[in-house]
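User: Can you write out an input/output pair for a complex, sequences first and structure second?

Assistant: Here is one pair. Inputs:
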Amino acid sequence: MRIGSPKESYIADEALFRTRTQWVWLWLLLAVLIAYPFVANLYWLFLVCLISINIISATGLNILTGYTGQVSLGQAAFMGVGAYTVAWLDNNTGSPFFINLLAGAGMATLVGLIAGLPSLRVKGLYLAIATIGASFILQFIFINWESVTRGTRGINIEPPSVLGVTLDNPDTFYWLVMPIMVVMVLLAANLFRTRIGRAFIAIRDRDISASVLGINLPFYKLMSFGIASFYAGIAGGLYAYFFGAINPESFPLLMSIFFLAAIIVGGMGTILGSILGAIFMTLTPEILRYGVDILSPYIDNAPQILSPLRTAVFGALIVGFLLFEPHGLAEIWRRVRRFFHLWPFRT
Amino acid sequence: MHILSVDGLTLSFGGVHALRGVDMQVAKGSITAVIGPNGAGKTSLFNSISGFYRPQEGRVVFQGEDITRLRPPHRAALGIGRTFQNIALFRGMTVLDNVKLGAHVRMRTGLLSALWYLGKARREEAEIRKQIEREVFDFLEIDHIRRHPVANLPYGLQKRVELARALAMRPKLLMLDEPVAGMNREEKEDMARFILDVKEQWDTTVLMVEHDMGMVMDISDQVYVLNFGQLIAAGKPSEVQANPEVIKAYLGSGDIHSLRQRLGGKTRAA
């Protein structure tokens, strides 16, 4: 049981992590993240790299949809903008990867700001449709602007190299994507300790009274779109480097829905929710495949029967979350924490 | 010296005239009340002043500046704070964050420093926290609930948090839309005391819409009476109370003596 957590200054009370327990867990997590590549095999490193990319993108979408309340189905298309910018720069200028990455994020931000313009007039489902429109337009550009995107043939990207080390495998790429992911998540968490983050939440909760209290709605809505697409751009650039090749099929509308599902399952409007949601959505299909492998010896024709079942179970899990835990995995996490705060007493 | 004046404000929605040529002057440092029967246009007047409605005719002048064409956030930045009739707190935030949001227009943190939470953002957050703790939380006695989500608070406390949020702006003009509606007697007394203290200690002018006659008559310096979007009387509480036109409009015709007693407020709020 935790008994109080006294502070001596307001700065200490405004800190991101306020109790010693939180700090201990945080350092533990960091130690695990550093030790991970030394114990995991390539397959699990591949998964964690993919999860990290998804966490970055999901965090961006959560800022826009979970915190600011602007439903967007364009996140994958913005990732595509970042990825194609990185790919073009990689093939045509040979500039270092971090410049490419930032340029990709910058380009995605620009496109995101334009795609966010409808949010000044419409919200909710109408805005969702408008962002779907934006993704179709971007998809069209990816396919047809052959001189830049090479159309349906796609582009290959050389793996990035740092200090002479080529990051061409998950075990090396991990050291690029993991720190970026940690920093991006911390930046997002910081944002919601300041006036900008509060303005976003105010727009989500009651846009009209937010406006009367002095919040410039168009400015902050567009800023939220810009931040979300910046995150998407970084994630897309990393995606391009990670897989080494992209084509218009890499960023389908289904991927945007994947991210939306991730933040809903994880928890809208929480940083932890984006992380847990991205992990859940990336990992569950893999774990279910393990389940199929384990069951195969006992069932005849296992692949034919169980593989479609796997997809159905995944879908059912998502529906289950919506029904039984509408506030997402982050809420379960909070409940567990509360339990231990009060232990051995019960709520 | 008038901090706010409204000249010939006319507002209509289609064929419905919400306001017809309303004139009003709010003296600096006063408590001014707007009263009237339901649908008289009180909240429409408030929304026109805070910029949520665009009146078809007339002007709103705040501190000598014509703000009729300004958008709501700009008016807030000039120092017009307000609360709402149906509590409009941000339910996804804690009490502390709601109140901090009230100080939004007084803060300058930009996106970059907000993301890294270094330098300006850090200093400004600490400073605003200190101000809110000292000026607002201590004053309104809500420091014990600062980390609570507002959605779970009882009604009376929510009203108080809303006042706190408006005060965090350090408004020059504080507009309260029915500050004691739905409160019990004790909560009403507290709120009346807070409003008087705001006027005395904060150098703030208060403009309020209120149905509770006892409270209006006790604490206001000036009262305006609206009916069907028109101003039918204005003056000190005692003058308005004695005005037969007001009594008729407000309470319907009937036994003038007993109506006058009701308007005088048998249940004193403060």
